[in-house]
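Q&A log
Question type: sequence-to-structure
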Amino acid sequence: MRAALLLSLAMVPATAAFAGPAVPSEIAAATAIENAVLARTRTPANVVRDKYRHPEQTLKFFDVTPDQTIVEYSPGGGGWYTEILAPLTNGKGTLYAAQAPGKGYDALVAKFAADPATYGAVKLVPWPPEAGIPAGSVDTLLTFRNIHNMVMDGTAEANFQRFFTVLKPGGVLGIVDHRLPEGRDVALEKKSGYLKLSTVRALAEKAGFVLEAQSEINANPKDTADWPDGVWTLPPSYQLGDVDRAKYAAIGESDRMTLRFRKPK
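Response status: OK
Response body:
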């Protein structure tokens, strides 16, 4: 019996065996995230997609806390994550919604105006951020499924440098994006919506970031990343309409990398 117990303990990973108890501030931050995900102000259609996007686990992985200064880069007109980040930071921290001028920006203006109790404290700023977000003032910058757009339109290097500029030393850059298998033709990154992890890492490291951790929180092994219309074949886009819709619905949303980079102190 004693030998079996010793063997079982030996098989426990070191990080699990020696991890200390959570401190009160960590517990409070985790609870705040859980409550924000459960906020009744969220759009019901967005809540349904939690099973693909895992917002609670993702924000905890990015070390988000309610008292931080946070930038959400390009939340889009729907503001999927903004619906969680706004109540999370309201009255405690600062949330910037950084969006390029256009339809998405205008949609956010309308969304925020319709619910000032939830969004009144959010700072909606145009991107690029030089005039709206002070350099070195941000604790965490989050971007969800946007890097592939930068790669396709040629703005990736410039935007990563801007990310680096607005973050404090020690600040976190949290990235979620559609993952292309490393063995695929790199040319697919220009048209499929998928990116290799190595491509994202190279962009971040060139700007000065260090890859601190990666997670499989948002992985989807059913996604083979070789669809007729790229990632937009899958939900929620369903680019092919009703063609094989049940098949793509069963696959679900894309396989995604989840990467935490840090700006060196």
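Response note: The CA atoms of residues 180 and 195 lie 5 Å apart.
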